[in-house]
Amino acid sequence: MYNEENFASGEYSPVGVKDIFNYENKGSYIITSSDLLGTQGGGGNSGGNSGESGGSVGEYPYNSELSQTVNNRFSKIWKGVKEAQAHGLFPSVTYAQYVMECGWEGSTLSESYNNAFGIKADSSWTGRTVDLPTQEYIDGQWITTTATWRVYDDINDSVRDRTQFLLENPRYTQGGVFSATTYQAQCQALQNSGYATDPSYASLLI
Predict the structure, then answer these.
(1) H or E element: which one contains 100?
(2) Enclosing H/E stretch for 150
């Protein structure tokens, strides 16, 4: 996991899925609030975007409670986020993971190398790479190590790669990631399936 903002301490600040689009406080503020945080596949009282498929992804729902910088960063990956939703991945969870990996204002990995989700380069990766320091939670403690990360030409390619990674690894389907009907359940399923080494990963996202 790459998180430059909290790298020195090895601690992660809670993201708060529900706070990203202020669903609890302003559930009707954003037309696609249910699309972002409610049930998948157009459930609830979501707007027209929730049932979209194919090439139409709708406009990014700017949120006045977030800074312009954060809104701009979120809008850049909106296409990939909506594509991921077609596979059952909540946009709010995707954004929460994005913030968890890169911080609210972005990181070197996301801004310079278009890697939005801290995806490492294994032997199957044939594209460009970059070596950067990171911290991993191993055997009950945080350790500092250097990892090799994937570099993308476009940040939405990183979002697509994250989606493909989850789809191709059976443990995520078996762990209930794609069948989750709430963002809380999906966050917990990601942790239970081994997405991150941090034992508090799900609670930090939520």
Answers:
(1) helix 91-102
(2) strand 141-150
Per-residue pLDDT of the chain (206 residues), as tens digits, is 333 333 223 333 445 555 554 433 333 223 233 334 333 333 322 323 333 333 345 677 777 767 788 788 888 999 999 899 889 998 888 888 888 888 777 788 998 999 998 888 988 899 999 999 887 778 888 888 888 999 999 999 999 999 999 999 999 999 999 999 888 889 999 999 998 877 888 888 88
Instruction: Provide the greatest CA pair distance for the chain.
Output: 47
* Closest by Cα among 9, 188, 37, 199 to 103: 9
Half-sphere exposure of 25 (CA within 13 A, CB side): 9
Residue position matching structure tokens 């709708």 = 58
Is the dihedral angle over the CA atoms 70, 147, 206, 6 positive or is it negative?
A: negative
Catalytic machinery residues: 136, 161
Task: Transcribe 169-186 into DSSP letters.
Answer: -HHHHHTTTTT-SSHHHH
